[in-house]
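Ticket #4471: structure output looks truncated?

Reporter: J.K.
Steps to reproduce: submitted the chain below (335 residues) through the standard prediction queue, then opened the result file.
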Amino acid sequence: MKRLQTLTVIVLAGIFATSCAGTMQPMHTEPAEPGTLSRAYDALKYLPEPEEQVVAAVYRFRDQTGQYKPSETVASWSTAVTQGATSILIKAMEDSGWFVPIERESISNLLNERQIIQNIRQQHSGGQQASPLPPLLFAGVMLEGGIIGYDTNVVTGGVGARYLGTGGSAQYRKDQVTIYLRAVSTQSGRVLKTVHTTKSIISQKLDSGVFRYIDMNRLLEMEAGYTYNEPPVMAVTEAIDEAVKMLVLEGIEDGIWNAKDENEVLAYRERFEYERQFERQAQRDYFGFLNRANMRSGWSFSTEGNLGQVIGNYSNPDINAGLSLQIEKGLTPSV
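Returned output as attached by the reporter:
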């Protein structure tokens, strides 16, 4: 009987390990696909139509944090956030439909190429004056700023339990990236508008395992786990998309630029709950949590049912059912 139980445990452990390996597919490759869109993309894409697009230049929207990827083993010289934020910002400007971005980050390469074209035209003009190239667009507005903050381990925590070599654990960590974006008039140098956004980066880890002797000389060892790390580049993309959207909407409020239809602006605010976002922003604390004064007001009721069997030193363990009822009342609105 004991041998049959041992064989059954080994077979079930093998099936469990095989199924986990098939699900995770460590050697599986995927084809290239279009880039993932951020959760702020829809709100950016469906902004109200502008009365006239703004020609804007971005020289460099860079990482100003100086942060490197955290490592518990060796020193890492890889940066914590992307160094290509300028390209992300230009893409967001195009998607908004409010800006006409012009090339300024690689302006030296652009000028060199124009000079090469002009020289080739002059060489093949047959002694006549070659027609000049059309002039470059000049920007009415410059977009400046950058990634000014990357805070690691803002919130960390976890839970775990183990009994007789069997158990599991869960851990999580929250990082935070902050974006500042400002619009500057090229005629006067005045800062027209400044906005900032913050995006959290969540990392989670779940693992479980068994390590116990099922017989005198037979050891059962099994592990399974799953790790989820939110891509920092997607967090930066979402923060930049949100910043461009806020820059457009707050610019409309301040009369910096105008929408083609004011009714479309009102409909947009109602659809994407623009005012509610500002209310939630005022309620958040430094950790990104909503700080509500009436969070624990009133009564709360909860029930729980369970069915279990105690595995231990009992000769004949019984299967028992249980039911619990919990009633809570906050002492104060916040405690």
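Triage note (M.O.): checked the attachment and the full token line is present. The radius of gyration is 30 Å.
Status: closed, working as intended.
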